[in-house]
Amino acid sequence: MEEVAISIPDDENRPGHRLAAAAPTTDPAELISAARSLIMRGQRRILGLTGAPGAGKSTLATILQEALGRDAVVVGMDGFHLRDDELRRLGRYERKGAIDTFDAAGYVHLLQRLRSREDLVYAPLFDRALEESIGSAVPVAGDVPLIITEGNYLLVEDGAWGRIAALLDECWYVEPAEDVRVNWLIARHVAFGRSTEEARQRAAGSDGDNAHVVARTRGRATRIVVLPQQT
């Protein structure tokens, strides 16, 4: 039996309350169909995508958004990275990407505004080339029926993070094989300017620590997803 969340207002069917144990979903067409089934005219649904660093969350978000067109907008948690100078002030720069290097409360506030279907909301965007967030970069009109939001810590229960699950209609956990995930992560770091050795150290170091935090949230997801290997 497949693990599927039914999007109804009852909080018992929101992320954090597993409906069934099941084999992972691997077919992109099936995932697109599942995302499309969330769309209801005149309503706003929010689909979360979570998983460890390098799992393919952004890739899946792009696949879904391109398939759904104007019916979906992608809003990333990474837009709430603290600025590098603030991380240095806090002594956290070397751990950038860790759970305490984000403005969790700000992200929750954005999701609350998106849930309320304001006429127009501007969301931030994280630019990997700059390694900084750009404010007010993603416009979200009130008539967009589906928001896709992706990030590492959507199902963490501590602090402000614990308020996110109730704002999501479903949350899918993206989980490739561990060696595949690490290789994708190293390739991404290299693509954005790190040497291969630096990329490996980052993937095994702070990224590895963050992956352990995320892994503990797997059981709260409404669907487990394994993407085909990227080429």
Topology:
Blueprint: H1 28-37, E1 45-50, H2 57-68, E2 72-76, H3 84-90, H4 104-115, E3 120-127, E4 132-141, E5 146-150, E6 170-174, H5 178-191, H6 196-204, H7 206-215, E7 223-225
Parallel strand pairs: 1-5, 1-6, 2-5, 6-7
Antiparallel strand pairs: 3-4
Helix pairs in contact: 1-2, 5-6, 6-7
Task: Describe this entry's structure for a reader.
Residues 1-10 have low confidence and may be disordered. The chain has helices at 28-37, 57-68, 84-90, 104-115, 178-191, 196-204, 206-215; strands at 45-50, 72-76, 120-127, 132-141, 146-150, 170-174, 223-225. Helix 5 (178-191) packs across helix 6. It contains 7 helices and 7 strands; from the N terminus they run αβαβααββββαααβ. Helix content is 32%, strand content 18%. The strands form 2 sheets. It has a 5-stranded parallel beta sheet, with helices on one face. The chain has a two-stranded antiparallel sheet with strand order 3-4. With 231 residues, it is an alpha/beta fold. It has a single domain, classed as 3-Layer(aba) Sandwich (Rossmann fold), CATH 3.40.50.300.
